[in-house]
Amino acid sequence: MPAIDTITLADCAALIFAPDARSSESMSALARTLGFGHVLEYTKLNALPPRTLPFFLVHNGIADHVKQRLLRGLRATEELRRKFAPIICLIPHGPRHLMVPQVEMGFDEVLFLSDPVAEIGKALIGQLGREILYIEAPHYFGPDRRRLERVSRGDPRRVPGGTEHRRIQVVRDPQHGIRASYVS
Questions:
Q1: Element (H, E) at 65
Q2: Which residue of 42, 49, 89, 116 is 20 to 30 Å from 95, comparing CA positions?
Q3: Would you call 126 helix, strand, or coil by DSSP?
Q4: What number of H helices and E strands is found in the chain?
Q5: Cβ neighbours of 150 (radius 10 Å)
C-alpha cells in the first residue's frame, strides 16, 4: 500500500450524480481541479476503466429517495469497487446541520461545495489508504456512524446489546483496489 502522503486521486474516477446540467458541470470542474484521473457522468458508469477506483459524487439537490436508492443499489452489489466505493454527498452551502441526514443515510462523507478546494481534496484523499469500519445491520449498511449517535451510551432508551450487525474492515487503495474483511 502506498504511503498516505503519496496518495492522489489520479488513479480514481469521479462519477457525477447531479440534479441538473449546471450542477453537473460545476461538480465536474471541481473533480478535475481535485485531480481525478477520470470524470464521468453517472450514466457512463460502464465506461469506467477497469481497476479504476470510483468515487460517487452525489449532489444534495437530488431527492432523498433517489439518494437512498443509489446508496442501497451500490452497497448491494457484489463488485467490491462499487460496494465499498466512497459515496460522497456534496451540499452547495451551509448551514452545517444539513449534513446530518446525509450522514445518517450512509454517505461516506458529506462535504460543502463552498468549502476551500484544499479541504475538500483532503477529505476525499482521507477515504484512501487507511482502514475504514463498515457496519452491516438489518436497516443500515455503510460506514460506522456511532460517533454521531444522538442517544448516549447510558441513556435508558438505548437497546441493551444493540442490534445484530457485522463489522467489515475496508481499505481503499487506488493502485491495488479495495480490500474488505469481516472483523469480530
A1: helix 64-76
A2: 42
A3: coil
A4: 5, 9
A5: 7
CA-to-CA separations, 116 to 12, 33, 120, in angstroms, rounded: 21, 12, 7
Q: With CA atoms as reference, report the closest residue to 101 among 112, 110, 93.
A: 110
Mean pLDDT of the chain: 88
> Which residue matches cell numbers 473533480?
31
**Cα–Cα distance measured from residue 146 to residue 135, given in angstroms and rounded to the nearest whole number:** 10
pLDDT tens track for 131-175: 999 999 888 888 987 644 444 555 554 455 566 889 999 999 999
| Backbone dihedral angles phi then psi of residue 56, each to the nearest 5 degrees | -95, 110
Task: Report the CATH number of the 4-183 domain.
Answer: 3.40.50.2300
pTM (predicted TM-score): 0.88
For residues 40 and 48, give the distance between their C-alpha atoms in angstroms, rounded to a whole number: 8
Task: Provide the 8-state DSSP code for 116.
Answer: -
Of 77, 58, 75, the residue nearest 142 (C-alpha): 75
Identify whether the C-beta of residue 39 lies closer than 8 Å to the C-beta of residue 31: yes
